[in-house]
Amino acid sequence: MKKITLNEILKSRVFKVITAVFIIAYVIFVLTPFGQDFFKSSFTFLNLDDNKRYSDYFDFSIEFFEAGKTDIALLKADEKLILIDTSDKAYSESLAFKFETDGVTTIEAIFISHYDSDHIGGLIDILSNYEVKKVYLSCYYDPDGYYPKLVHKYLDENKINYEYLKAGDKISIGFIDFEILAPVTKHKESNNNSLVFTLEAGKFSALFTGDMELKELEDVLENSKTYDCDLIKASHHGSINGISEELLEKFNPEYAVITVGRNSSGLPNSATLKLLSEKGIEILRTDKNGDIVICSNIDDENIYYKTEK
């Protein structure tokens, strides 16, 4: 049997045809959106550039910080940073370290869902250490409450720009559009006066629910149109009284993020977890996953996420 050398193989017509087909297929693959997404995702997951954070590869990101049974999320889009809630004052030092890692110096806007300490407690520390262009607050609150008095005094004395929001208000920051769904009316309970809103960033959409409970849940269901969203921030750290089958059918999320700490008084509720699972919704939890980063691109229907744990 005649031995074929490597040089002969490389010069053979069959090898040249196979090589040409491979090159053409590769070029076509790279030029398609699927191929571009594949290489972009692969590059990101392999961390080939240590000087970039995961979210830096995308047009838009939401980072939910692990901060016990509190709420704080950092949005990045169009070189603008937006905070949704500020956690509790007890986490200010650890959050300052995370902000330093993220390169935070200026915050375009802060949305405060309501005046409970686990959502607003860190606000004054953040206002004291960073340039904040605007603060958005729920229009309904107890004027005699500790945090309403403390925060409004600080905002007024330091001439910080702020605005109250209610159902029907719409705001655009860069390419992110916010639509406020609640509060619709004033309720006695602070949780039921939470800012509830949708946000759209390119083809990505999310529903933020604060600590909405049954009364405000009913307001949202009654006054909101059907709206498909990619993600829901589960209300009240996974409590069963802030979610329902009707809500999930109305907004049809693919992912649910639960902000909760270890041993958080039975939260998230097992019934909440069961309901989300039965609806086929992927659950991400800060107590189990640590920091959670959700990312997308303006013209991309895909969602990418990375967890700390």
Mean pLDDT: 89
| Strand portion | 15-25%
Cα(first) to Cα(last) distance is 58 Å
Largest beta sheet: what is the strand line-up?
A: 8-7-5-3-2-1-16-17
Name the assembly state.
single chain
Tally of helical segments: 11
Given helix and strand content, the structural type is alpha/beta
Series of secondary-structure elements, N-terminal to C-terminal: HHHEEEHEEHHEEHEEEEEHEHEHEHEE
Which regions contain 5 or more consecutive residues with pLDDT less than 50? 43-50
| Helix content bin | 25-40%
Sheet with the most strands? 8 strands, mixed
> How many extended strands?
17
Which descriptors would you attach to this protein?
alpha/beta; eight-stranded mixed sheet; 11 helices; 17 strands; 33% helix
How would you characterize this protein structure?
By secondary structure, the chain is of the alpha/beta class. It is 33% helix and 24% strand. It is built from 11 helices and 17 strands. The chain has helices at residues 6-11, 13-31, 33-45, 92-102, 117-120, 123-129, 146-157, 214-223, 245-251, 270-278, 286-289; strands at 60-64, 73-77, 80-84, 106-107, 109-112, 131-132, 135-138, 162-165, 170-173, 176-182, 196-201, 204-208, 231-233, 255-258, 282-285, 292-296, 304-307. The strands form 3 sheets. An 8-stranded mixed β-sheet has the order 8-7-5-3-2-1-16-17, with no helix packed on it. Strands 9-10-11-12-13-14-15 form a 7-stranded mixed β-sheet. It has a two-stranded parallel ribbon with strand order 4-6. A hairpin with a 2-residue loop joins β11 (196-201) and β12. α2 (13-31) crosses α3 (33-45). The longest helix has 19 residues, at 13-31. It is globular, with a radius of gyration of 23 Å. 39% of the residues are buried. Residues 43-50 have low confidence and may be disordered.
